[in-house]
Structure formats: structure tokens, C-alpha cells
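Encode chain A's predicted structure.
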Amino acid sequence: MSNTDSFIEEVTEEVRRDKLYAALRKYGWIGILAVAAIVGGAAYSEYNKAQARAQAQATGDSMLAALQLDDSAERATALALVEVENPSAGAIVSLMTASEQSSAGETVAANETLQSVANAQELPLIYRQIASFKALGLSAADLSIQDRRAGYEALSQPGNPLRLLATEQLGLIDIEAGDTAAALVVLQGIIDDSEATADLQQRSVQLMVALGAEPDLTQLTAAGN
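Encoded structure for chain A:
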């Protein structure tokens, strides 16, 4: 390479560096802000996660402290005072509160607590249906067969998470009403249902036998239960 070519390359390189430095001086602040935003965003995200974990831990600690009390009424009162970080956590605490209220003989209060969960449209369906299911059982002595049947039929619709448990209750209502034939159909349907748990199927088998019927275990055997 000639001295002239070498000189030209050096000059060209110097020009490139000058342009780069000029660009950095002019636009470098944008890059710095971008990096700061990324780092700051990550830090904020981690802060939020840490806050959520701390809140969940505090809720859990309060729930455990309440459950360690000796008396059901005291546990119910303590649970009702637990501060929660989101509606779902609140639903869980309310369901536990209702259980303790029921154990303490506070049936009216327990039913009100359950109804507050069942009617909260912002909650996931599973919480609302659990509350409705428990409320129906808690109020069984005060509700007519027709009202209980309507309640469990609503819960037994396809796709509902408590469908089979509600169906079992419908079978028990048929037995209570003296309609053994209808009860046997319901119970056999549970035995044949692939989504039924082994315990639920076993209870249905036992009820059918107690009613003097012979359950068809073909589907049960095929499923290996």
C-alpha cells in the first residue's frame, strides 16, 4: 500500500470517528434514556412483584393466626378482619369465615357471607359456585324441595365446575321426595360419567345398592375405577 493510500485511509477513519462522536453527542441521550427506561421498568416490575409477594404473605399469616384461635366464633371474627390484596383472596377468606360462622351456630351470618360471594360478579365462577353450593346446603332446612332443586339444577349445567356434586344432590332430593326411579337414573348417570371422581362414583354405587338396585358397573370397570 502506498503512503498516499495509507494517508487517505487514516483521514477517512478520522472522519468516521468524528461523525460517530458528533452523533453520540447529538443523539446519545436517547440511548441513555432508553437504557434507563429498560432498567427502571425492570426494577419497577420487580418492586411490584415483591409487593405482591409481601401482601400475599401478610394475608396468609393473618389467616393462619385466625385459624389457630380456639373458638369458632373467635376464628370467624378474626378471619372477617383479614385484609386481602385482591378479590379472589377475599373470596377464599369469606368462604373460610362462613365455615367458622356455621360451626359457631351463626347460620344467618354464614349464609349472608356466602351470598355476598355468590353474588359478586367480579369473582371467578368457581368461587361463586362454591358459595352457592354451600349456601344451599346450609339453608336446606329452610328451603323447599323445589327451591333446592332449582338451585342445584343451576349448578349442574354442563361446563360448571361443581356439576357432578350438584347432580349428586339432585339424586338425594329425588330420594327425599320419594322418587326412587328418578334417583336411580341420576346415580347411574354419575357412575357412567367419565369426569366423576372415584369417591363420587363409589357413593353413587352404595346409594343404589341401599335403594335395592343393582348398579351397572360396565363404564366403571372400563375406566379402571
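Residues 143-225 form one domain.
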